[in-house]
Amino acid sequence: MKAEALVFTGVAAFFGVVTAVYVVWGSVEPAGTAVLLISFLMASLVSLFLWIQYRQRGTRPQDRRQAAVHEAAGPLAFFSPRSYYPVLTAAGAALLGVGVVYGLWLFLVGVGVLIPGIAGFVFQHNDR
After folding, report:
1. Average pLDDT over residues 80-87
2. Does the pTM exceed 0.70?
3. Were 61 and a residue from 41, 54, 67, 125 both cysteine, which residue would form a disulfide, CB within 3.0 to 4.6 Å?
4. Closest alpha carbon to 92 in 105, 80, 79, 106
5. Is the separation of the CB atoms in 5 and 51 below 8 Å?
6. 5 vs 63, 64, 72, 89, CA distance in Å?
7. Is-contact 50 5, C-beta < 8 A?
8. pLDDT-based confidence at 128, cuts 50/70/90?
């Protein structure tokens, strides 16, 4: 995960520099500063997570230049064969967004559809 950590560290550094330049240049708009700052913080969070994973798990075959293909063979993780929860979650998110425009009743319907979708994602394979 070293390569991924380096990429997100570069993205975080880019947003950090751009945020600093944007603030120093005397921008009057606080929304731009907030968006750039949040972008920096989000990239930093992903970068920190990837560095921690790299420190805990060590190098993978993908991190070495001379690694053979067969070293990374085998199952990587468990992936659900089929699930309807992504569709349910997307429908709930769409109803939530449309509910912001059309009214509270549709927003609440979206919440009612979204909550089971998220709960299904979380508890779908709880026995694994």
Report:
1. 88
2. no
3. 67
4. 106
5. yes
6. 11, 15, 19, 29
7. yes
8. low
